Amino acid sequence: MAKRKDPESRYRKRNIARYLLLLFASLAYALFYGGIFPYTFLYMMLALPVISALHMAIVCYFFRMSERVGERTFVKGECATYHLILQNTSFLYMPYITVHMQLEGQFILKNLRSAHLSLAPFSRREFKYRMPLYFRGRYDIGVNYIEIQDLLGLIKIRLNPFEKKSILVKPRILEQNSKSISAARLSEGEISAGLHETGHNEIKDIREYVYGDSFRKIHWKLTSKLSKPMVKDTRNELDNDIILLLNLNKSGPVNEETLIKEDCLIEEMVSTIYFLLRRNIPVKLCFFKEGPYTFRAASLNEFEGLYQILSEVKFSGDDDFESIYHYFTDTEQNCRLIYVFSVNLDGKMIEASHRIKNKGFDIELYYVDIVGISQDDAEAKNELADLLMKSNIRGYLLTPCVVEIPEEQEEPEKAWESEPVMAWPWKKKREKVNAHEKQA
């Protein structure tokens, strides 16, 4: 298939051809007819490129651009503000300015697309945008580069901004009031006390207190001697982490529907990690991204590291998740409880879960779609729920929700008109399959 040519490049070639044609005509006119007027016309044609280049050099030197972003880190559902100022401080007119915006910024706000404009002498133009953030991730926003053409349209100069602007949109942390955890995960004393903390038998380290540590672990004698709070890190035989395994394979075409499904899964995973770390239950985040990665967190003060990773992770893999599944379960021998998070649930994943369950692991599956079952087929979903329940595997069917962002009464100034970003019109509440409801 032939590549589509750039229209700007095509226009520039046409301008060059027209200028060369006029230059040849003026040269022939001067040679055949002579006189003041023919040679004046020839000299003007020769001087035009020089004048045009000098004009472009002056306006580029006096051209000013400023970008402002209110903040750099947001939570999904908030709004970012972007302010662009273009200024011509010279006494010359700037007729041909092309502003090329970042493609990721155009995905967030469709109004933020490339445009052609001009600037009068000693003038400025301001563009203000309010960008509702419907999707998590890191996005490059603002100006990618600016092209300024000369008066004849023969050459152009590219101006790059001093700094590329980017924002990080973090997933929401949903409140989880309760969650069933395997009884083998807790000791008898912890169950009777109603506390989910790590063991109290063997001291493996003594360190300074940080926010999120349990007061039950404070080393009071050492605290009184050093005049600062010290904490004991302890361990017992029942210390085993909970594995949270994330499937990063592609879940579908890159569109709003797919992104909402992925965000739904990530938000459930982030909320689960936050719930466990608040109770001092250590977790291990595992995924495969051009290689196996494992990140461990044992207390709430280590939550921010996992939160940052899950905010930027992308579903772009194309690996055999069944092999990845077995790799992490074989590597982490001390972990008996596994939470598997996947946008799509297929037959291979269910068979792998059965085999791993037979090895003595407790498994919970979190998924948004079931491969081969339509979104409205409730009967097939219930049959799958019964199958998981008979295998003693907890299954959670997640329903993506729409982020509602209230619109401001005053519309921001828009440089280029287009349709606003629309969220996918789905339900707002998280649902569970019957298997988990019956077991709970």
UniProtKB/TrEMBL annotation:
Keywords: Membrane, Transmembrane, Transmembrane helix. Residues 205-279 form the DUF58 domain. It comes from the Bacteria. The chain crosses the membrane at residues 16-36, 42-63. Pfam families: DUF58. This is Uncharacterized conserved protein, DUF58 family, contains vWF domain. It comes from Thermoclostridium caenicola.
